[in-house]
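Now for a concrete sample entry.
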Amino acid sequence: MFTWVPGGKAATSRQPEHISRMTAQFHYLRRVHFRDPLGEDVHFNEKRELSSLYYILNYASLIERKMIYRVVGHFNASAQKGNQLLINNDMIIPVSICSKPCLPGYKRILKPGIHKCCFECLPCSEGEISNETDSVSCRKCPEDQWPNDMNECVPKPIEFLSYKNDIAVLTVSILTFLCFLKTSTILGIFILFRDTPVVRANNQTLSFILLVSIMLSFLCVFLFLGRPTHVTCMLRQTSFGIIFSVAISSILAKTIMVYMAFKATKPGSSWRKFIGVKITNCIVFFCSFLQVLLSIIWLSTSPPFPEKNSHIYKDKIIFQCNEGFMLAFSILLGYMGLLAAISFIVAFLARNLPDRFNEAKNITFSMLVVCSVWVAFIPSYMSVTGKNTVLVEIFAIISSSVGILGCIFFPKCFIILVRPELNTKSGLSRQMKIKL
């Protein structure tokens, strides 16, 4: 059994119930035909479309908050294709504005007491963007991003002392390597001439310890360069603090030995029993052990760690080492300064002792250089930001190490290499004609 439905298609009696119901309803809708209040015919065509005329209205808001509208076109579904939609552009109500459109990168700000069609264009604040015309607000970029010239949020550049594209790192690396080679050469000279009076004066063992400590201090500079890691952040301050403390302790032991040697030359002096290798070794060990103990406490409680600091600069991220427990870092530097100050005072008091082997004057000048460098380091370190703080500390390390090397060992190398006739007991017993 077949039932005819609109469109000329046949359906069996096994059609779903809801399809049969819709077919029956449209059978009655096809008979709908009436006129609306505007006099237009309302009826359905063969495609089940409402073949009526739709008017297109253009609404506009007046200053008095009243709305007006105007017929600017119509849509007729029963018309031929291409003629269904007709719009009269001359009838469209123009938009009333008294300001130019706000370009991307700006936001609209309404002027108080003036209609909303009048506004100002203000640039977005730092770290914000607007990538649309006439935007009413700006969008803040994420913390690790920054606006570019295309009004897009792009990742901030990460800055650290890189070996690849930083001239300062290359300069520091070359300077440090040259200083390391120079110290190694001096150590080789002292080992080669270890039995001469100049090298044996004031304990050659302490001189060797001091030279090795200076060499290691130069190598510590490379821990401050490159991309920070957990290992380098934990080692760079503590390793330099321990190594430089050994160097200053050796100088302190040298100075004390000069003073004790002069006191022991007096008849019946009780200072003679204190002169020996054990005393100097105890001074170096004890003074260095305190720095080692402080470093262990620092690393076990609140060790330094790498971090990306985006608060120093707004347009870039500083990849740096967070020192963690700043009090421990301050004590570490303060302890090295205390050892240098004590060495300076003792060497200053012993500078005029009548001993031809006396190098207290040289030690006095070296400690004066060290103290001046680290006193100037504190305000410089606190006043700079970013990777410049690392460069300031590197400069202090190199300057203090070069100061010790130049004031204590360069005069001895001059005698060994240039004036070998003075590198004898008789030569040193005479009044030296050169100034060390």
